[in-house]
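Input structure tokens:
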């Protein structure tokens, strides 16, 4: 069995990458999939939102954070895995990833490093799905994550003023796909940008159907632009204050239902929260 690898990416910060990957990881658990979340963003947002740090001693945080993947010789990902209250396992992030980015030196080297680790490790292949949260900075680490991914999901801020970077991101994914193909890395697992969707991260960034239609027309990515967007919700923020994803906090709310729809589009499934939740 091989774990499917799903990375979230957009070089724009604050567009909903972490919120999305956390909701998708959680939905994956509720959907019965053995799930691992890797926090590959130096800002550690997914780690903090998963509320794992408070249960770990500082020395353990040092020994277990994701930077150790780049320091251990040979790397042993299973030694870094921690459990979360939400049912998925995690490899926690670290601010030191900024430094790890520097030893990855060039993009081609970076891409080989992470892919070999993720595809060949026996413990990691016990998972059905491995989700990778990435930061907004374009560099070797982001390249490595995208090259390693089977599926890439790109959330975007919703308004037309916020979308220029999102429009550039498919070209970045394409570049990563070419690196994977050029280096003959796992030819049976091409990188695919499976979903672009919009997320109203603020009340100002209202989604208009114009933006969605424009994206659909502009991209030659059939089916990749979702008609569903995640609406702005104060409940999403409120849930986060209690370290809860919106799918747990308010499963019937519009944003939770939007995440379920997009999840089903990504995984070609028919999962529903009814039965999985009682909110
Ligand atoms: N639909 C939404 N409604 C309200 N707030 C949101 C929504 N989506 C994201 N946010 C908020 O926007 C901010 C940025 O989201 P985040 O997922 O951290 O983005 P990124 O990981 O791309 O930087 C967070 O504070 C998050 O709580
Ligand atoms: Mg983030």
């Amino acid at each position: 069995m091989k774990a499917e690898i799903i990375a979230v990416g957009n070089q724009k910060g604050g567009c909903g990458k972490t919120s999305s990957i956390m909701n998708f990881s959680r939905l994956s658990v509720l959907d019965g999939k053995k799930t691992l979340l890797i926090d590959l963003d130096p800002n550690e947002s997914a780690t903090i939102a998963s509320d794992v740090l408070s249960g770990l001693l500082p020395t353990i945080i040092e020994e277990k954070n994701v930077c150790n993947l780049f320091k251990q010789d040979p790397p042993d990902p299973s030694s870094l895995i921690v459990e979360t209250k939400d049912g998925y396992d995690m490899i926690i992030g670290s601010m030191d990833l900024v430094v790890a980015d520097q030893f990855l030196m060039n993009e081609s080297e970076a891409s080989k490093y992470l892919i070999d680790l993720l595809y060949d490790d026996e413990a990691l292949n016990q998972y059905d799905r491995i989700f990778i949260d990435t930061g907004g900075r374009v560099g070797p680490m982001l390249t490595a994550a995208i090259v390693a991914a089977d599926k890439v999901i790109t959330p975007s801020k919703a308004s037309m003023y916020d979308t220029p970077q999102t429009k550039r991101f498919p070209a970045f994914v394409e570049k990563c796909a070419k690196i994977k193909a050029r280096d003959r890395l796992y030819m049976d697992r091409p990188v695919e940008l499976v979903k672009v969707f919009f997320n109203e991260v603020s009340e100002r960034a209202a989604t208009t159907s114009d933006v969605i239609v424009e994206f659909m027309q502009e991209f030659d990515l059939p089916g990749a632009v979702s008609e569903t967007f995640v609406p702005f919700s104060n409940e999403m923020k409120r849930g986060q204050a209690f370290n809860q994803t919106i799918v747990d906090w308010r499963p019937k709310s519009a944003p939770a239902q939007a995440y379920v729809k997009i999840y089903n589009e990504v995984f070609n499934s028919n999962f529903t929260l009814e039965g999985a939740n009682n909110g």
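DSSP finds twelve helices and seven strands in the chain. Residues 164-182 form the longest helix (19 residues).
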